[in-house]
Amino acid sequence: MAPKHGERFVELCDSVRGQIRECTVADVHAKLEQGQEILLFDVREDHEWEKGHIPQSQHLGKGIIERDIEEKVPDPEAEVYLYCGGGYRSALAAENLQKMGYRNVISMDGGFRGWKEAGYAVET
């Protein structure tokens, strides 16, 4: 069951959705199935990552992604995909990375929950 988010948090996330690019869970799955090497970052908390994550993804929690992204992805033109539990935190992280000059950041709407619901592979 998805966690209940506070009204102001949802409003904040919805307010950035018009400023960022989003994709579907199926879009990311298709790229991975085609063998494309994509920069895919899980922005959830450490304990969430440890319970399971999307294969080929890297972990950069929302609390540190802005601090550490330049080391992992020095090219601000690189296509970077972000996901979280449901697509809210990744939307906020995408907006911040855009403010830092990253021009091709995409938040995966539906997040890890959507990935699991679609029956796609999970690594633990």
TrEMBL record:
CDD domains per UniProt: RHOD (cd00158)
This enzyme's EC code(s): 2.8.1.1
Gene3D superfamilies: Rhodanese-like domain (3.40.250.10)
InterPro entries named in the record: Rhodanese-like_dom, Rhodanese-like_dom_sf
SUPFAM superfamilies to which the protein is assigned, alphabetical: Rhodanese/Cell cycle control phosphatase
Keyword Disulfide bond: no
Annotated Rhodanese domain residues: 34-124
Gene Ontology molecular-function annotations: thiosulfate-cyanide sulfurtransferase activity
Keywords associated with the record: Transferase
PROSITE patterns: RHODANESE_3
Top-level taxon of the source organism: Bacteria
Stored PANTHER family: THIOSULFATE SULFURTRANSFERASE PSPE (PTHR44086:SF13), THIOSULFATE SULFURTRANSFERASE RDL2, MITOCHONDRIAL-RELATED (PTHR44086)
Protein name from the UniProt record: Thiosulfate sulfurtransferase GlpE
Organism in which the protein naturally occurs: Rubinisphaera italica
Taxonomic lineage from the root: Bacteria, Pseudomonadati, Planctomycetota, Planctomycetia, Planctomycetales
